[in-house]
Amino acid sequence: MSPSFLVLLLIAVVMGALIGFWLRSSHREQPSEPPMHRSPEEGQKSLAELIESGQMINAIKLYRELHGVGLKEAKDAVEAMRDGRAPMEPAMRSESSGSDANDAIERAVRSNNLIQAIKLYRAQHGVGLKEAKDAVEAMRADLIRRGQA
To answer: What does the pLDDT look like over 81-106, one tens digit per residue?
Structure first.
């Protein structure tokens, strides 16, 4: 074998190795960022900024994180905010109506209308479906334990 052939073969092997390494490293899945813990006010501010800058996918992800809702509900809500059909900031809840709302939730639980109780709980506390369901079930278990259900 001639020396020039060996040099070309060596260059080809080195180039192949470099290209293979580059392809493997570029296809590696990047680790996702852990969810940031933020206050509701910070979350709403970040959500508004994402919507205003047109970052709809990130806005939907953040909305889901903040409100604990499904993908479709988050997408619809973010699109409504973008289109001006819904306010960017959530409506402030009235503290004076809190006891009335809690009474209504308890009445719905006592009458075994758990779906209505979950809806009321979500509206009052601004939480996602799972959190509201868990809270209503805990309230029901407590009422049963106390013999009031």
So the answer is: 888 877 766 544 444 456 777 888 88
Please report where in the chains the tokens 């709980």 appear, as a residue: 121
Distance CA 144, CA 149 (A): 5
CA distances from 119 to 30, 63, 107, 135, 146 (A): 38, 19, 13, 12, 24
Q: Between the CA of residue 110 and those of 90, 116, 127, 139, what are the distances in Å?
A: 30, 11, 21, 10
Query: Exposed, middle or buried: residue 135 (CB in 10 Å: 0-12, 13-18, 19+)?
Result: middle
The amino acid occupying position 93 is R
**If we measure between CA atoms, which residue out of 93, 83, 82, 80 comes closest to residue 126?**
93
The whole-model pTM stands at 0.41
pLDDT digits (tens, 9 = 90+) for 36-84: 556 777 888 888 899 999 999 999 998 888 877 788 888 988 998 888 8
DSSP 8-state assignment for residue 104: H
